[in-house]
Each structure stands twice: as structure tokens, then as C-alpha cells.
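Ticket #4471: structure output looks truncated?

Reporter: J.K.
Steps to reproduce: submitted the chain below (136 residues) through the standard prediction queue, then opened the result file.
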Amino acid sequence: MKRSTFRPRDILNKEVAGICGVARLTDKARAAHAGELGSYKYGTDSKQDTAILSFISISAEAFQEAAMQIDNDVRLGAWVLDNSGRSDKDISTFNRKLRSWWKNKIPQDSFSKRRRELAQRKENRIQDWVYPWFWE
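Returned output as attached by the reporter:
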């Protein structure tokens, strides 16, 4: 059985229409159409997609059709902006909220805490495994 190697762009990517998540949505729409979505979800099955589609006021089906017909991200972005009716201020606010949500979703504190724990362990200290042979 062939494993899917599909991986959509990052949710904070603003390459399509200057709106966070639309580039990722584009990748997922095209992959869903091709049957290569893998374990990812598209459209109403994904809470992220639902929020983005709701903001741009475009259905998942209409977006997928446009993503298949328009193979250029710049032209697709122009189509999204034409059909969403969102102002630059609306987009800026949405992007800021999405970045804030994403930042709070990732447990950065636990990552930093684990990194400090590993750094404090004697076997992971650089002076214990690099310096002895370096000075000899």
C-alpha cells in the first residue's frame, strides 16, 4: 500500500489572497479532489477549514472548484478577494486572531520545559561528551 506524502502549507502562510490559512486550504482542496488527502480533513470535516471558509464567505465546494480551475495562487487569491467582499482591515484582524489562536494552541511552554530538562541531564551536557576528547 502506497503511503501518502501529502503535506499542506502552514496555516499561517498568507501566499494566497494575503489571508492566513487560504494557501493551506488550497492545497487541501486540490488534494481532496485528487484523492490524495491522506489523514487530513477538508471542508466541513475540518474546524480550521470551516472557520476560514466562513470568513471568506465561500463554500467548500465552490472553493474546491475554483482551486481546480485556477492553478495559479495569485489568480486564485484575486478570485477569493473578489468573492469574499472582505476589506484589508477585516483580513488584518482575521490574520491576527488566527496567529494568536495558533500560538496559544501550540504548547510552547511544555516544549521549553522539556528542552531545559534534557539540557540539565548530565549525559546531555556538551562539556561531558565533547570536551574530554577535545582536550586530550
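Triage note (M.O.): checked the attachment and the full C-alpha cell line is present. Residues 88-105 form the longest helix (18 residues).
Status: closed, working as intended.
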